[in-house]
Amino acid sequence: MADAIIRGLAMAIVTTPFLIACGGGKSDNPGPINAPQCSGSSCGVQGPPASSSTSAALCPATADIVKSTFLGGAGSGEVVQLNIDATAMTYTLKWLESPIPLRTGSVTPTRAGTQITGAVIHPPTGTLPTAEQTRCAFILGAGSGTAAGDGQPYTTPDFANNPNPPMILVGQGVAGGGIPGATIQFDGLSIPLIGSGIGAVPNRHFDFYPFLGFASTTTDITRLPGTYNGLLYHLAPSGNYSTVATNTVETFDASGTCTSSNAANPNYSPNAGGCLSTGNPWTLNSNGYFDSQQAPQIVQQFQLPLIGATGKSGTAHMVLGQINGATVPLIVRTGYINLGTAPLHLDAKVDDESGIAMLAAATPLASGGFDGGYVGADSNFRYTATLIQGGVGTFINPTTSAAESGFGLDYGLASPGLVGVQDKNGKSGFAIASGGLYAIALQGTENGGVAPTSANSDTSSTPYFGIGAQISK
Description:
Blueprint: H1 3-12, E1 69-74, E2 78-85, E3 90-97, E4 115-121, H2 131-135, E5 137-146, E6 153-155, E7 167-170, E8 174-186, E9 189-191, E10 195-198, E11 201-214, E12 226-236, E13 242-252, E14 258-260, E15 283-284, E16 290-292, E17 315-323, E18 326-334, E19 336-338, E20 349-351, E21 354-361, E22 372-378, E23 383-389, E24 392-396, E25 403-410, E26 419-423, E27 428-434, E28 437-442, E29 464-472
Antiparallel strand pairs: 1-2, 1-11, 2-3, 3-4, 4-5, 5-6, 5-7, 7-8, 8-11, 9-10, 12-13, 12-21, 13-14, 15-16, 16-17, 17-18, 18-21, 19-20, 22-29, 23-24, 24-25, 25-26, 26-27, 27-28, 28-29
């Protein structure tokens, strides 16, 4: 791995776990956005968020890291279990749910059920500012295992010649970073009298997929009831990787049923109660999370069969993370594809919309309520740091420590805890916060746009989405 890449990572992940989230898109606005625009010095201060004391333990003792298996989700629409043995310097990763094909050139079978093991290494000495930070950071090497979908070997890339590898930082109760990516491509179906290339997926490589996992989760549905603000990101590969993010305000009852007062939007297909995160009521999965069938779609879909609608065949999965005394629902939408029976494929089901959402309890959040420094990565597949100070936020370039995009914050929206944001170019969006995590969505191009190694020629740099973890106040 190039030293420059390592140094760039270092500034962004120096002291706490992070979630890389990718996405962006349209907003269903429950209240007006009047966030102040900013320019010049009013957009924030330069420099990365202050790190905690070098003597503080950033993660469990080396021998104890293996005691936690992190359950969480990825921006790819995958539910993942991850364990790192920091003594043996190995990792075990299992995809419990996945829409990501095992093989380039196909769409099925997916990585669901596949487990891999491999070696980890710490970033090279001197890459991170302190030995403690280096101890808690792990670069994932080649993972290998037998694919559940086809019974054949499955291997992910190694450290060598990998300029942007997956990296995990283990912290107190949470692990975040990137899990192995993939190269996606599908020529599409050929149907007599209709044509070829139907449902084709353009070639695109993903260096890694964003991941956040919790050491502590709960299957106690009584922790869920209440009203939440949510930020969702989904993408549809068959729509040339079209991405949409939106906000939602939703209420869950004790049975896991979701209702919402979201305004009708012809571009979305919410459930009967208006929810965008949830379809049918949540049911417990034996792997420790919850499932919701007929998950809503927020991206325009390519549909088969050609006669009649396919319906919503994707499934939402909810991990109830427990962190810093808060319950943080992380919701992953996993697309589903069944190509049906040749030659006409009239029984095919194509709902390949996948993505991730974070929910935060709709409780009042005043200016200064989540001030501090955050680290993470974003829809650009770049690592970043964020400073939030009252009505002003600043994204920091981790390589140069200079301010990049800036944004203003408006704490006066109708839904408690939902914060309006607006960048210096007037592009608007939202932010939410819970348990020391925050999420943000903006409709502009921020921080230089998507990294070229995780883009194809048609990849848009808008909108922008990210989730970060707090490292300083």
